[in-house]
Amino acid sequence: MIIKRGECEKLHRCLASIHGIVSEIVAVVDPSPMDGDTTDEILFEYGAKEIFLPWPKDYAAARNAGLKQITGDWVLMIDTDEYIKVFDFDENKADRDVYRVVRENEYVSEDNALQNTERITRLFRSGLFHFEGKVHEQVTADDGKPYAAGNANIILGHTGYVDQEQMLKKSASYRELLFKMIEEDGDDPYVYFQIGRTFYVEKDYENAASAFEKAIDAGADTKDEYVESLLETYGYSLIETGRSKDAMSLTGFEEYADSADYQFLCGLIYMNNALFDDAIAHFTKATECSKVSVAGTDSYISWYNCGVINEVLGDTQKAASYYKKAGSYEPALKGLKRLS
After folding, report:
1. By residue range, what is the domain housing residue 112?
2. What percent of the chain has pLDDT over 70?
3. Which of 61, 95, 159, 256 has the fewest CB atoms within 10 Å around its CB?
């Protein structure tokens, strides 16, 4: 763990969730004191090994300092604003050296509580890997070789995106480190992708789109797992900046045919280009997909958009049927009320 002082309530929740699961806790902590902070006492309560390290403005460096103190066979990386919801992993049955876990992100958009899920690499054998990257650090094999990560039945809850003000502060600090990485190491598609995400969080869609374009120009490859998120967030940025025609180039990626989030984006792109039959086809396809990250893209939000299209076209009967499919989704209920 890397621990920022002043987040004691989250730290207590995190440590309580891993109590009895892990054999040791290694916590990298900035020694700078903070009034009213009880981080040290909480760590002592859970028997954690504290590593004091003045903040180096480099997440990988801080993580690697902690790795040197680990004595166990496996490493689980977890942050203060995360906590374990499900942990079902038997190291004796492991057939990989690296595993991804599911992280369920809670966040707020326009005062609505939402959730999305993602797979992230967080579990690996000790002594074989290290971290690289000043921010959004990546698990890297010591021998430099690529690796294939397995999927572990571990679910983390994450509330780091709930506090909007705190999220914006994080975004600005992350971007500073990301630009530093570009300055020191040159163009990197993944780093540009992360820069784009910081602008997107701040609703600076023009700069977000520009960063995503640089990521694509720098060689982003659909074989890389993050690229689907890149394309989707780029598409939303283009729509938000009135460049829906440009977004048409993002449709037709067969690699993401079973992704509800991607099919939903395609539906929005076609909808914003007044290609309504194509839009409905993609929204419907989204409801048939087995892979979904953003809650609702595979169900009620897609059906709702189908209802909106039909209402605008004047087919109130079809619109009502789609709104009903959206169930208790508030905008759909309002749609039914309008039609009645």
Report:
1. 2-162
2. 98
3. 95
